[in-house]
Request: fold
Amino acid sequence: MLILLFNFSSVFAIDGVWHNPLGYENLYSENEMLSIEKCERYPRDPTAGEDVYIKLTTWPIEPGQATWITWTKNGIPQPDVGGEWKYNEGNNSYWEAKLGSFNKGDIISYTVHANKDGANEKTIGPFTFTVTGWDWVTDVISYTALGNRFELICNSHSGNFTPKINICFPEPDYFRLQFAPDGVGATATGSASFTVDDQATHIWLSTSDIKLKINKNPYQLEVYKSDGVTLIAKEYDRTSGRSLAFLTDGTSRVEAVEENFYTPANEKFYGFGQRYNNLDKRGTNVDIYCVNWYKDQNDKAYLPIPFYLNSNKYGFYLNSTYYAQFRIATDEADKCTIRADAGGDVNKLLDFYLFTGPDFKTILQDYYDITGKPVLPPVWAFGPIISANEWDKQSEVEDQIAATINYDIPTSAIVLEAWSDENTYYIFNDASYTPKPGNEAFTLSDFTFGGRWPDPVGLVDYAHDNNIRVLLWQAPVLKHTLTPHTQKDNDEAYAIQQGYVLGDGSGGVYRIPPAWFQESLLPDFTNEDAKDWWFSKRDYLFDDIGIDGFKCDEGEFVYYRTTTSSDGKKGDELWNAYPAQYLLAYHEYVKSKREDTLIFSRSGNSSAHLHPVTWNGDQRSTFSAFQDAIRSMLSASMSGVPFVTWDMAGFGNDIYPSAELYKRSSAQAAFSPIMQLHSEQSGDPYPSHARTPWNAAARLSDYECLTVYRKFANIRMNLIVYRSKIHK
Reply:
């Protein structure tokens, strides 16, 4: 009987079928995620004319399996589409079915099927998508001058929409444009100090500094200096393409909005946040997408900012936290396309500012009028900062502080990365305590310290006695672990119960997909009660121990468009917004403790200058990475983020810096906005991977590593007050 049962089950062996239309919704594949969803729909969001492929998997691998798609178009059943076997991997077979292409507005619903030898059928679905296509502004119907703003009503190419364009002038040298595809919203106001001159074919809007020429039919915007002759920028030639456009299903959805500018061949584009490969982005598609990309970032960005400076003396700021892409002379040699997701909301706007001025400094000052003036770090933050991931115990940290004294190495701060229990991220490793309910916070007296960190108060006092500040590492997660941890589990249960974490859009909680901190929860920093609860756990670190701030790592953890926060944002908007929410919350918190505190961070968006020190992430210890780091700091600075740094001479554990790289990096770091060193290797490596000058001198058998670093660190310390004053 057992043999017969085994034979029967093997004949019909198919355990399941899987298809995940949107996958993890990550933009990139390698490096960004630990695994790649191989069973997505491609493309995830089809547009008119694109062939649609359904990718799926079955398991286990068995001969005789078949897959197919049943589907409807606009409610009408269509012929089944068979799946084509592509390859086997591990225990799975992978298949693909081609549905074909569709028209704008088509609604496709489909179910995925699989069986073996015609039996034991498995299904998944149904899934639905609506096909979109591009529509655009054609001509101006009417206009209204409303004192402090100017409104245009327009026709669309399809005739299904009546778009509205709203223009206002916050200051005479720049304007704000809002484009509402369905004519709803777009009511921002500015100064009333502009004039309107209506001509037969065009309208002039004039301030004391600039003139806007609005051509009526076809619609096209041109921006001139006050003479009305010198062109600053203009929308793309309407005989060759569209200007303001939107991606829609034709009725109730807008998936993306778009602007198109003409760009002559000699124009250069700088900025866009941290960019590592080249400063001028002409000939590049630049993604505004916050991503954790480990080493060799090239054009990937922890800190993407939808702002650029143009060599023709104007700046452009896209006021959005959705994913956006700047397609700079890639589709056409003379066209720059700015395209931003709109989340499927027909009421979402394209919203941007165009700044003009005699120089980049003036343009950045106007940009700061919109995004906020940069926050000045405390004076001590301009001195050298040291860190190493291998410093995972108090005795080691005290030895490093002693070394700064023994070798006469100026040091302003030390960062402790490996200080916590790696579960709560607010309790020192090896501390003994009685776990508390998730709603309660600890004080110093609740702990008995021992093991690696026997006396945190004494450690911080020792650092302070030697004029060294202490920062602790943080990440915005309620960490998922495979083994129970009572305090972490209590915190997690309470946070879920109170709604203090991001949601999944279906009444549950969002958990990080396969990446660093997989399955962990993210605190919702748009929820004031959640912020108060989160930081109450960390109060004793300031109030009782006396730390001076945090190194705020990570933040690039939000995937899935269905993810939700308490302020109503969804995942496609949170991708770029969450890092800023996290970092601004931490900045406000540490400043509530003491004014001379600091956070410094890696991720962020256009508010990065408000929290205010940024380092450029994970870099190798090579001259090539050194060049990348310099470019990323320059591009961040041109994006309005002045206080930038890198892990001097690189931090990677794959290679230790050469003596030449170390010494040249020391010289460069001394004149950077912020000077700091760090190394990746954890544990107790031998030899040490620390980038401290005494370790570099010993490891590289080159005492000049120490003397050169000391020389430039002293130069930096001599400039510290001057630096603070000029930045102010």
